[in-house]
UniProtKB/TrEMBL annotation:
<keyword id="KW-1133">Transmembrane helix</keyword>
<feature type="transmembrane region" description="Helical">
    <location>
        <begin position="54"/>
        <end position="87"/>
    </location>
</feature>
<protein>
    <submittedName>
        <fullName>Protein LiaI</fullName>
    </submittedName>
</protein>
<keyword id="KW-0472">Membrane</keyword>
<keyword id="KW-0812">Transmembrane</keyword>
<feature type="transmembrane region" description="Helical">
    <location>
        <begin position="12"/>
        <end position="42"/>
    </location>
</feature>
Amino acid sequence: MNINGKSIIGFFLILFGVSLFFGGGHFGGLVTGAIGALLLFYSVKKWKEGRQFAAVLAAIFGIMFLGGSLPFLIGIAVAAAMVYFGWKMMKQDDKQNDILYSEKTEPSAASYDTGFDAEWEDFLKKNK
């Protein structure tokens, strides 16, 4: 891998994304988000059963839980985007280097055909 500006920026994007993901070391937002999602699922289930009061109550609590975990979920989304685009920048640099390297490589021995082989084959056919 050739180190240039894009690969350095990609590395720092990955580094900051991972530090944002693990920032603080707590995953409380994930737990409250899961509880909120379960409460919303439960409210839809109760609404279909015809128990509207229980469904509305569960939906209100589910939205409150999801609203509380919103900063955590946004942080996770930003961290994932930073890691994705950082990795893409680093791999794009590798692909460009591979293309450049493959263009600079020497051609294979078969491509050194100067016409001598064809003439030699014709000469051998005539002398048989």
